[in-house]
């Protein structure tokens, strides 16, 4: 049996009855081809099993057509929404995403994430980090690899894109204090989490601005789960002074509400509860939880655009994506006592 010959661009041109230049333009995603001609060439490519030579295209165009993405954790509503925003932006720009999750057996640092990306055929790297790595303040990107970090804090050497976590926490706390509550209790997520730290800071700052007492943050298991919120809610149900709770995410808030109701507390008549991220909207039927809504899709899109245009911006900068409060049925006026 003879050796199978790969299909060439000239083969496609002959099959479609067009010039090799037209085939080249279609293969490279050029807009200078009429839609009907593009479809004609694409049908010939599919019929012959033609696959463009990625290495040759890279040499000709000076880029790979792929953006690298390192996620320290893929699971989680916010991370998945960010990934969807990145994916849609890549599709619109005719780019591919090269995704890798940070291996648990590797050094959990920005430097290691950048090293992984530097060995892959990508034009730029996006690093999505949810907690402060040991080298967050000192990390410098590889000189030949454009790098953008998705994180809610500024980094001295890289452009960062993130949600304004402190402002979000301040808005929730202001909302609850404005309803007449003497103070607001905070249910904390993992203490190593950058978003959790910033939410906690925004909560504390707002209480201080209003001269309100600042209770110690309440923790369940120290994670983001509803079970952890339930444990924290059980603790707060025993505190007669607790009339308002701000939870670091919606799962914690829902867990706390279940614990309060199990203890005979009414929400919001006895205790108001607000969450963070509005991740249960469209997931829980008749969602009543007051929460701060994050546009993680937009965060992903902006991060992609920053990576794509990193050459045109010399100085690292911080892009802050705003959040907004969605008031529903779990917050109300402070009870009369």
Automatic annotation (TrEMBL):
Residue ranges crossing the lipid bilayer per the database entry: none
GO molecular function annotation: DNA-binding transcription factor activity; transcription cis-regulatory region binding
Pfam family, one: LacI
HTH lacI-type domain span: 7-61
InterPro entries in alphabetical order: HTH_LacI (IPR000843), LacI/GalR-like_sensor (IPR046335), Lambda_DNA-bd_dom_sf (IPR010982), Peripla_BP_I (IPR028082)
Family matches, as CDD domains: HTH_LacI, PBP1_LacI
Gene3D superfamilies in alphabetical order: 3.40.50.2300, lambda repressor-like DNA-binding domains
Alphabetized UniProt keyword annotations: DNA-binding, Transcription, Transcription regulation
Protein's name in the database: LacI family DNA-binding transcriptional regulator
Organism encoding this protein: Enorma shizhengliae
